Amino acid sequence: MATILYFGNDWNAENRTSTHHIARRLAEQHQVYYIECPGMRAPRRSGRDLRRVFQKVGRSLRGAREVLPGLKVQTLLQIPLHRFAVTRWLNAHLVLWSIRWLMWRHGIRRPILWFVAPHVASLIGRLGESLSVYYVTDDHASMPGIDRDSMRAMDEKLTREAGIVFVASDTLLDRKLALNPNTHYSPHGVDVEHFGRACNPSGRVPDDIRPFPQPIIGFFGLVERWIDLGLVRYLAEERPDWTFLMIGRIGVPPETVPSLPNLHFVGKRTYEELPDYGRQFAAAILPFTLTQEAWHANPLKLLEYLAMGKPVVSVAIPAAEKLSDVIEVAHNREEFLARLDKAVRESKDAEAVLRRIARAAAASWDARVAEVLRLVRETLERNRSQLGAIPDEVAAIQAAQTTRS
Fold first, then answer.
1. 197 exposed, middle or buried (CB, 10 Å; 0-12, 13-18, 19+)?
2. pLDDT at site 390
3. Could you read off the pLDDT of 263-276 as tens digits, one per residue?
4. Which residues partner with 237 through β-bridges?
5. To the nearest 5 percent, what fractions of the chain are helix, strand and coil?
6. Cβ neighbourhood burial of 326 (10 Å; 0-12, 13-18, 19+)
7. Do the bridges between strand 65-68 and strand 71-75 make them parallel or antiparallel, or are there none, so unpaired?
8. Residue-range domains of the chain with CATH
9. 3-state secondary structure (DSSP) of residue 387
10. For the segment 172-211, what is each residue's pLDDT rounded down to a tens digit?
């Protein structure tokens, strides 16, 4: 069994992301220390952000806590002001000391470092690791609210120096290959069993949406600046007899959120509840604003919608185009509306439902993680042959894969 130090976002984040899905599956085979890294943007002076800062300080002082068999969570204390050189220098030393202390306390030697958060790039090569993995989920430098130059520098450092790099979106592949030839495309997966619960017609109807008239057009995820609320307003205005249901925390100014009788922003719901809400969807939408960030995104919700068997209409981003055999892709708002009409008309088509579910099933997280681990094992084996020694981690991964199969 290998020991993996996994650097990701908050374990209890509002959305279940690829970071969480992969870590859970790695922990089924290996000992995983999930290191919660502070956010990439500077905290605002809001009550929510200040509460999160104090909560993280408290969690960091508690040490590693077991949340699942094989998975312990350690909160990392870091100053979230990456745009200042002095802050980056202080963070590099604070983080290095913190992780070395964690390794000493738990007797960790030659771990595999698994980076999802690029702003801890200073750790690479300094912990006696057997291998470093960089799993790139987004074009981090294009995300809102962060210092782009410093984030780009950290992202490129990790890409160049990691032993192996994975990108969730193939639009990032060429750029990363130019920096690291051992880069691989690894698209997001889906928890097929969890979202498949939406296909049970006798399942629970959430009380808060029971009065809403059908058809219900649904969305779940953060309502942030990358959501095209103008498009959402247009759709709701054009179909006043339909219900438009937006599930997720609202992260934009309240005055920018459209208000219409048939448009409902109900706030966040737990991951466990999402299939119950999704069961009521006649169709699901992905109304992204066409920014650079959206262009490089590989939204998990596309596959989650498909795993529920629901027809999907999306704006034209590369991740959606790849699924155009089972979802509707629109290039402007008028086309989006026309394709949404078609999706609602065909929402009960049993053959189409099965086709969507099958497409999602082929992309399960179990299959994705198995392929990632195969490539990690190959890289470790190649390092072994070059160094003339057999890292314990190779045998551990081989043993875990054999046991699982």
1. middle
2. 45
3. 999 999 999 999 99
4. none
5. 45, 20, 35
6. middle
7. antiparallel
8. 3-189+365-404 (3.40.50.11010), 192-361 (3.40.50.2000)
9. helix
10. 999 999 999 999 999 999 999 999 999 998 889 999 999 9
